[in-house]
Design a protein that fits this description.
By secondary structure, the chain is an alpha+beta fold. The chain contains 2 helices and 9 strands. It has a single domain, classed as Multidrug-efflux Transporter 1 Regulator Bmrr, Chain A, CATH 3.20.80.10. The two termini are about 25 Å apart.
């Protein structure tokens, strides 16, 4: 597991705008919905202030062509929900983080492979999985989907 570069990050609590789509291509469909809403508000102009996270919701499963994906973008306290946007409060917490590039992997197979490696890393260290949202932070969401670089964020806590 030496090839996996992992660092621990404490994500602070934040208020997020949430978009979820269930389809055969939910990542692309949910991203388009979020981009159309967040773009004119200039939220995508500063990804440090307004990071974008996503996760399967519900996860893919055998025999089902459709699954879900949910995107979050950090927003300020004065923003409100709309017909297509739900506002949520994220409690934050400690995460084990590694990067995964979609470059050259249009199938997306590297994503689940990297998640498995990250889980093995956690199990081989003094941490355990904290059962809450596993997040994928988009480093470059304005790039074409095939060029996205994701920070895979696995919620962890020290073993007791």
């Amino acid at each position: 597991m030496a090839e996996l570069e992992v660092h621990l990050v404490k994500l602070e609590p934040m208020r997020v705008a949430s978009v979820r789509v269930v389809s055969r291509t939910p990542e692309q469909d949910a991203w388009e919905k979020l981009r159309v809403w967040a773009g004119p508000l200039r939220l995508l102009d500063n990804l440090e202030s307004h990071p974008v996270f996503g996760f399967n919701n519900p996860s893919p499963s055998l025999g089902r062509l459709k699954y879900g994906y949910e995107f979050w973008i950090k927003i300020g306290p004065d923003m409100t929900a709309t017909a297509d946007i739900e506002v949520k409060d994220f409690p934050g917490g400690l995460y084990a983080v590694t990067s995964c590039k979609l470059l050259g992997d249009p199938s997306g197979r590297d994503i689940p492979r990297t998640w498995r490696k990250l889980m093995k890393w956690v199990k081989s260290n003094k941490y355990q999985w904290r059962r809450t949202h596993e997040l994928e932070r988009l480093q470059n969401p304005l790039s074409p989907v095939r060029d996205w670089v994701l920070d895979l964020c696995l919620p962890v806590e020290e073993r007791t």
